[in-house]
Design the sequence.
């Protein structure tokens, strides 16, 4: 059933005084499963390397699975987002998007620097992002690493970042009513849960659905759920959380940048100890010029990395 028809059905039930909860209009209920992006980096690689012996393996294990699409600095962000969520809507599927454009992003890691040029430019960008989604159902992860990087930032930079993140939560609240948005909440090995809870509250988590953990990292689902529940206790309210399981089947060895011996985790699903388990990081996309991919820049798809994640080597 198209999402518009589902909304009308829910509205009719509410009008006749049914006890149906408001959550019936969630983006999960408005769609029939997660969207598989035919234009993802692994899908594009498979399409252009059909003769490569690795192509069928990468297609079956990665390219054919629901993976979040990351959006960065784009002068036409509203139309880019609208096009993507519109494509998902045409299949009655739920898209997962990542907003990744904060000024000075990846302050500690350094491999994925960049972002908007100023606080004002970011506000314009994120407002356009939310408006591009509009009433379409969607899931959005807001700014990976944003609240874990504080040790590498000045107090003024932290204040600006909180201003931008709070504004982002307000934009999704106001302009994307059928979106579940989650502020990034780091991972189980980075920031202590009480500290992360405090940072999330200061960044406006109460305005959105909740927070995400383990984005682009490797901690097991059980470790991530345990950490997230501790954070949730500190956040309070109705906050929910999601877990990035894209590369976490073998857990973390303490390294975050293209470590060897990692493996694909369970594919996107509802529940699993969290509100959702998602592939937020695209498996096979490099974390930076480091680890087992010293010549592959951050954000670049590597078939070798992909196959190693499939095989767990």
Sequence:
């Amino acid at each position: 059933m198209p999402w518009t028809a589902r909304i009308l059905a829910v509205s009719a039930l509410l009008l006749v005084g049914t006890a149906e909860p408001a959550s019936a209009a969630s983006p999960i209920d408005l769609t029939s499963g997660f969207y598989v992006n035919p234009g993802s980096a692994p899908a594009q690689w498979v399409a252009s390397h059909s003769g490569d012996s690795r192509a069928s393996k990468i297609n079956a294990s990665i390219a054919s699975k629901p993976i979040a699409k990351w959006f960065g600095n784009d002068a036409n962000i509203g139309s880019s987002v609208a096009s993507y969520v519109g494509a998902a809507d045409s299949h009655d599927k739920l898209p997962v998007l990542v907003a990744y454009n904060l000024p000075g992003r990846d302050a500690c890691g350094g491999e994925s620097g960049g972002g908007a040029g100023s606080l004002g430019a970011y506000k314009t960008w994120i407002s356009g992002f939310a408006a591009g989604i509009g009433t379409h159902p969607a899931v959005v992860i807001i700014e990976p690493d944003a609240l874990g990087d504080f040790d590498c930032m000045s107090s003024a930079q932290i204040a600006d970042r909180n201003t931008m993140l709070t504004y982002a939560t307000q934009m999704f609240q106001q302009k994307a009513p059928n979106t579940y948005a989650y502020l990034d909440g780091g991972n189980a090995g980075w920031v202590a849960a009480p500290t992360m809870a405090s940072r999330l509250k200061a960044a406006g988590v109460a305005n959105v659905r909740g927070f995400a953990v383990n984005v682009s990292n490797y901690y097991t689902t059980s470790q991530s759920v345990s950490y997230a529940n501790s954070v949730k206790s500190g956040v309070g309210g109705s906050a929910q959380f999601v877990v990035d399981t894209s590369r976490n089947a073998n857990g973390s060895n303490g390294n975050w940048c293209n470590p060897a011996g990692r493996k694909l985790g369970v594919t996107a699903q509802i529940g699993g100890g969290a509100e959702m388990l998602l592939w937020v990081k695209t498996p096979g996309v490099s974390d930076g010029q480091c680890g087992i991919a010293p010549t592959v820049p951050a954000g670049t798809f590597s078939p070798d990395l992909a196959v190693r994640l499939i095989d767990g080597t």
Notes: Residues 100 and 126 are 10 Å apart (CA to CA). Confidence is low (pLDDT under 50) at residues 8-24. The longest strand covers residues 179-184. The radius of gyration is 19 Å.
